[in-house]
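Support case: zinc ion complex. Customer-provided input:
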Amino acid sequence: MKSGIMLALGALFSLSAAAQEVTLTRLECGNGPNDPRRFSDAFAYTETSMPFTFSCYVIKHDADVMVWDTGYLPGSAPNATNKPLVDLLKQINVDPDQVKYVGISHFHADHTGQLVPLKNATLLIGKNDWDGINANPPMGGANVKGFSEWISEKRKVEPLTADKDVFGDGTVWVLRAPGHTPGHSMLLVRLKEKGPVVLVGDAAHFRENYDHERVPGFNFDRAQTIASIQRIKQIEKNIKATVIIQHDPRDIGKLPAFPAAAK
Ligand SMILES: [Zn+2]
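Agent response - structure generated as follows:
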């Protein structure tokens, strides 16, 4: 009898493990050319214009939803999207009120322009970026306006001082990758079919920045930037991760085209 119960319990646990599904979808959050010469402080780029994109992502973890980076506020910049994040979420059957976590790579406006509609989401942000937003005066480049609801404590925020296993089961990690900004983070999503995927935030803006460890002159810390790129390269090698440079249009094809999701 007892062993029957144990068997039933065992079956329940394996069922719940098998039922757990994680998917990753890329959302187009703007595009337009950029001058790559700004992205190497050692004058490595000679081109004056390269295609550039802005990526947002949705992670579905069973019934829970997380958004990673939110793009510019539509209409706020020439390269901003004209399709609001909220509309894109609805196309993949996500109610913005249902979003449980919004993780951001860093505090710049091209990643934090559409936080406002995610009113029930806990904000996951590197503590050094959070401190930069709340400093007086705020740190240069911090999109303070985008965070107003969290600054006034109407919404939940979790300033991260270490890597975070978001759902507690090892499938989704916010990883520290400082350098571009002091609290810059990246996201690791471990998918069953596709395998591990790293969304690098702005640890590198173009593939050449990643391959050749090129550092933009406007980054917060040069040595930290290179150390973060080296961390990504080790992750790529150790767990055979797909590395996605979020701003590089050449990496868009590494995930299925919207509205499809990688599994
Ligand atoms: Zn950016």
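The longest helix spans residues 2-19.

Case will auto-close in a few days if no follow-up is received.
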